[in-house]
Design brief:
45% of the residues lie in helices and 12% in strands. β4, α9 and β5 form a beta-alpha-beta unit. α7 packs antiparallel against α8. It is elongated, with a radius of gyration of 25 Å.
Length: 231
C-alpha cells in the first residue's frame, strides 16, 4: 500500500520498530505538487530513516517563507527547524485521527506498562504485539463498563490464541476448561498468565489444555486416538 502523508509513514515506521526520533525529515528538492512525500517514500516497501517531504502540499503557510528561493543563509538552522516542525505536525496528525476511546486505550496501555496491574502483568505485556496490546486494553475498558469478565476472558483468548475454546463447568463448581489449541511454550504460558491475571474472576478455578483437546462425547474431532487429554 502506498504512502502519501507524514502520519502514514510514522505509523508504518512504528510497526517496523523504528522510533519517531530516529526519522529525519528533509525538504524535498524535487517533488510532485500533488504529493506530500517524495516518490521514493511513497513506493518504498521499507521505511527509510531520512524522508523527503513536499512542505507546500499541506503546509504552505508555514514553510513558504522558511525556504524562500531568494534566501540561502542559515541553511543548517532552517533544516533543523524543518525536521522539528514536521515531527510536530506528524504528531498532531496522529492525535487528530484518534477518537475518545483510542485515548482511553492509550491510558490503559500506559498503566499496564507502568505496573499498575501488577509486576507480572508489567513484565508479560511486553510479549504481546502492538495489536494484541490494544486488544487487551480495549477489553479492559469493556470490563470496566460491563463487568462481563468471563465473556471478555473468552473474547481475549480467542483473539490472542485463535484456536482456543473455553468451556464453563458450573454445575458442581466454578470451573473453566481452557483449550489453548497450540503447543506449550514459555511465551505462551506467560501470555496466558497475563490474560488470566486480568480477566479471570477470583472464584473460578481453571484447567488448561494445550495441543490435545479433552474428549467430548458426540464431537468426533475431540475423540481422536492419541490426541485426547484426560479431564
Amino acid at each position: 500500500m502506498g504512502l502519501n502523508y507524514i502520519w502514514d509513514l510514522v505509523i508504518r515506521a512504528k510497526r517496523a520498530g523504528i522510533a519517531k526520533k530516529d526519522i529525519q525529515f528533509k525538504a524535498a528538492k524535487v517533488y510532485s505538487p500533488y504529493m506530500e512525500l517524495s516518490h521514493e517514500a511513497i513506493n518504498a516497501k521499507t521505511v527509510e530513516k531520512t524522508v523527503e517531504v513536499n512542505p507546500y502540499y499541506r503546509f504552505d503557510d508555514i514553510f513558504r517563507d522558511l525556504f524562500d528561493a531568494n534566501y540561502s543563509g542559515d541553511a543548517e538552522l532552517r533544516h533543523t527547524l524543518f525536521d522539528i516542525i514536521i515531527h510536530l505536525l506528524a504528531e498532531i496528525d496522529l492525535l487528530q485521527g484518534m477518537n475518545k476511546r483510542e485515548y482511553h486505550i492509550r491510558f490503559v496501555l500506559r498503566d499496564l506498562e507502568a505496573g499498575l496491574f501488577g509486576s507480572r502483568v508489567q513484565e508479560n505485556i511486553r510479549l504481546f504485539t502492538k495489536e494484541e496490546r490494544e486488544i487487551i486494553a480495549g477489553n479492559i475498558l469493556r470490563l470496566y463498563e460491563t463487568g462481563e469478565a468471563v465473556y471478555l476472558l473468552k473474547d481475549t483468548m480467542r483473539k490472542i490464541f485463535s484456536h482456543s475454546t473455553i468451556y464453563a463447568n458450573c454445575e458442581e463448581k466454578d470451573e473453566l476448561l481452557i483449550y489453548v489449541g497450540q503447543s506449550e511454550s514459555e511465551t505462551a504460558h506467560a501470555k496466558l498468565a497475563l490474560i488470566k491475571d486480568i480477566f479471570l474472576p477470583v472464584r473460578f478455578h481453571t484447567e488448561i489444555y494445550w495441543r490435545n483437546h479433552f474428549g467430548i462425547l458426540d464431537v468426533e474431532e475431540t475423540m481422536q486416538i492419541d490426541s485426547v487429554a484426560l479431564y
